[in-house]
């Protein structure tokens, strides 16, 4: 069979340090399970590229990337050089939209060996997915400023939801819930305060629920939902949310599971018309970049999700199991990075997990 | 001196059960500290009123209430009878806007005797205020729907921020931070994703910070900020946020402190041109309403905040101390309600706190 083609984009900061470890583990998995991956690395979507060219991406990024089977992405953002809203709208958010990656999928899972900030919870008890709408909603760039520089200055920004956009992400979430043992779906809303778009969201959830009688559906307003992530993380199975609410929940969830330092995320075009993009939840971490101590597990967990997406399910499961096994050994027995209480380096931890695969 | 005039609005569900306990404690404080409170109770802003009249408020609500020194509010919302976005926009959100209560102030405080869901945190370690913008931002009612009922259906809703609106809530937050020992202010943003309104918010924070060199300012994007409430609640002192972000943070904060069942909130018009409104963070709780077991502490803590606002600082402090003292006794020694692990009733717990005052 042909090799899967992977565009590798390390980006900024620790992205450049953790991506090679992700590739190392991918190689180990490909070797162990007998398939091939063909990589090509790109230096755009980074502050360096911005400094050289004044743009975040080359003009032909769309054609350059669209033929790949997947994009393996590190992190973008280096505010000392380029403001975040410029670097992110100029790269990551372009990919999400250009390649119609309308699902952002992120797990929250208590892992062995990772201390949870929540009292008395243990691995197995907390294990759910956040399904985030990834192309519209609160992240529209429609809006502007009037009466600039005066006391009457006013800014406005539009939240835009479409039936197509809402229904397709709901469908993905309902399908996912229907395949899981608990078959439970929770919708994040705020229809009591956000009085136009959120009642619409609720309406579409109710309509979709009709088509999935086997799925048990509930909903919470986003304020109390964040509270319930902390108080009752065991309540959740699949949580579906708008772009902004999903953004919040998919950082909060992993934090409840101990650290956002190890959480992965998949930006998926389910129809596979375009490449999907896999990136850790953490950012470029300017504070620790360049020191070789960044935790590569988020990136490696992305590798597992990418393998699943490419149809190499057994390999994906093996990578996740390898992560769990190394974490379970603890900082005495495994070269865990400082954020996990160890003194291992990025490369040592990556090698250990590759070995376990 | 003249009595302070208080409009009492129990509203729906457990609002009707906890408000009398708040009044009981207010009376105890007035007796102990020698001042007078004159109450008048209103039955509007409730599902009963809606059923009778088809509106949430009488046409003259503004004139009726504007002369009061404060509004002591229970909870509104009874979705079986009237959809939440109707009942809330028809009452609570009218008060907030009509009376220009542009600050929503909510404490997060670990209380003795309340188990925190966070591992290893104890009272004193977590004690901060969320200052929420309360009249504009994401809660605008500007927006609508096009191509209704078709595949092209699209809804839009505008977030509106004004210089006046942003600056005045920032000023309140900076003033509060400047008076606190740690003098620290954290701004909630999302300027990397919400690309028009949030960069504006950041700009105004930066401008205001110039005027308060003594205040130590930082900012986090809302996604990682929610994570940090869980991972590092001790980092925070005063957190200032837009309407939506403040809504989320002021539920999440109290959840991290153990329960939103006891958290109070103040909707303040700092210039005192209009009455301020004091309401617990919890809602009308249809699931436990009518059983006499609702926890009245949120409402009683509101009484403490209202006394502070009316200038009866010593009385306010005494009410807060009474709450802490009764909580510290635990469910064996005090009639705590079931949510706190006891078997006390709403009235028993209210009476106990009134006694302690
Ligand atoms: C009931 C709802 C409209 C309200 C809000 O979102 O403002 C509530 O959650 C609050 O925080 O007071
Ligand atoms: C960097 C930022 C624009 C991005 C987002 O908000 O989508 C990030 O927080 C994420 O969750 O992937």
From TrEMBL, chains A, B:
**Assigned protein family:** Belongs to the isocitrate and isopropylmalate dehydrogenases family.
What's in the keyword line of the UniProt record? Manganese, Metal-binding, NAD, Oxidoreductase
The signal peptide annotation in the UniProt record is none
The name this protein carries in UniProt is: D-malate dehydrogenase (decarboxylating)
Provide the organism lineage as a comma list.
Bacteria, Bacillati, Actinomycetota, Thermoleophilia, Solirubrobacterales
Q: Which cofactor does it need?
A: Mg(2+); Mn(2+)
Q: Does the keyword Manganese apply?
A: yes
Q: Reaction catalysed by this chain?
A: (R)-malate + NAD(+) = pyruvate + CO2 + NADH
Q: Which residues form the Isopropylmalate dehydrogenase-like domain?
A: 5-353
Query: Gene3D superfamilies, alphabetically?
Result: Isopropylmalate Dehydrogenase (3.40.718.10)
Please name one Pfam family that this protein belongs to: Iso_dh
EC assignment: 1.1.1.83
GO molecular function ontology, one term from the record: tartrate dehydrogenase activity
């Amino acid at each position: 069979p042909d090799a899967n083609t992977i565009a590798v984009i390390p980006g900024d900061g620790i992205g450049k340090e953790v991506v090679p470890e992700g590739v190392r583990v991918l190689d180990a998995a490909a070797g162990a399970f007998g398939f091939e991956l063909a990589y090509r690395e790109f230096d755009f979507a980074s502050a360096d590229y911005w400094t050289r060219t004044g743009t975040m991406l080359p003009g032909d990024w769309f054609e350059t990337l669209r033929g790949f089977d997947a994009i393996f992405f590190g992190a973008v953002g280096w505010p000392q050089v380029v403001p975040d809203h410029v670097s992110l709208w100029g790269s990551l958010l372009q990919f999400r939209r250009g390649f119609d990656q309308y699902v952002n999928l992120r797990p929250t899972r208590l892992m062995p060996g990772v201390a949870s900030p929540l009292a008395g919870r243990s691995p197995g008890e907390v294990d759910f997915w956040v399904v985030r709408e990834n192309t519209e909603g609160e992240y529209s760039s429609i809006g502007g400023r009037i009466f600039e520089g005066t006391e009457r200055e006013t800014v406005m920004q539009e939240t835009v939801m479409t039936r197509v956009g809402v229904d397709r992400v709901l469908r993905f979430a309902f399908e996912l819930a229907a395949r899981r043992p608990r078959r439970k779906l929770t919708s994040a809303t705020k229809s009591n305060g956000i009085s136009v778009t959120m009642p619409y969201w609720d309406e579409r959830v109710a309509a979709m629920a009709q088509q999935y009688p086997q799925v048990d559906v509930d909903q919470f307003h986003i304020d109390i939902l964040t509270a319930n992530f902390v108080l009752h993380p065991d309540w959740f199975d699949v949580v579906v949310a708008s772009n902004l609410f999903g953004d919040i929940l998919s950082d909060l969830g992993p934090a409840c599971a101990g650290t956002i330092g190890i959480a992965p995320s998949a930006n998926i075009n389910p129809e596979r018309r375009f490449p999907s993009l896999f990136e850790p939840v953490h950012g470029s971490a300017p504070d620790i970049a360049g020191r070789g101590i960044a935790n590569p597990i988020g990136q490696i967990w992305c590798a597992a999700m990418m393998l699943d997406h490419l149809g190499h399910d057994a390999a994906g499961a093996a990578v996740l199991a390898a992560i769990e096994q190394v974490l379970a050994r603890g900082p005495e027995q495994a070269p865990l990075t400082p954020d996990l209480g160890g003194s291992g380096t990025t490369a040592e931890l990556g090698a250990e997990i590759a070995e376990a695969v």
